[in-house]
Amino acid sequence: QLVLTQSPSASASLGASVKLTCTLSSGHSRYAIAWHQQQPEKGPRYLMKVNSEGSHTKGDGIPDRFSGSSSGTERYLTISSLQSEDEADYYCQTWDSGIRVFGGGTKLTVL
Amino acid sequence: EVQLVETGGGLIQPGGSLRLSCAVSGFTVSSNYMSWVRQAPGEGLEWVSVIYSGGSTYSADSVKGRFTISRDNSKNTLFLQMNSLRADDTAVYYCAREGLSYGPFDFWGQGTLVTVSS
Questions:
Q1: Over the stretch A51-89, which tens digit does the pLDDT of each residue have?
Q2: A10 and A111 in contact (C-beta within 8 Å)?
Q3: Is B104 within 8 Å of A93 when comparing Cβ atoms?
Q4: Which of the listed residues A30, A37, B19, B65 has the most CB atoms within 10 Å of its CB?
């Protein structure tokens, strides 16, 4: 069964960097995922697609501070030079024939 | 400019029906994979249904047999027909574009709130 697992919360200081993790279920290490950001009281926004090889393709207008990487069944979102507007929920998402799957989301607090 | 605008949400009694619309501009709905995604109050995102460019449709087990995704190519609009609504269907419903084939949701609407309550 295709499942994505995320830590419920993370925190980092203003100006620092943070790395969020999304873990694919066993046997699904070749799957790409997407990262989406949801700021408070707003709809989701597509950030990037991260492939199993570690490359990433960002959505329109996504700052260079956001990057993606991979290792095994883990997919990462790194945000550098944290700003107050980066405080949001971050969801990973993947897909297969007939299904789409979201992780539970990580709530990022900027201290 | 790509825009997705959902309408049709509101307050509905348990067991009732509602049809959501997603009016699209900036691309052709029929050429893309399109989905509905929902978010219950205080909860995470949950995929609901997808329609492929070829017309095939798939739905999550939680809505299978009750919800139907469709589109009107002449109006460039996506729909979600929701029947036999339950309290746990209460959520903000978003439409999202997936692109020309399997892939990430790369554009989202702003959402419409559906509240199922007596």
A1: 999 899 999 999 999 999 999 999 999 999 999 999 999
A2: no
A3: yes
A4: A37
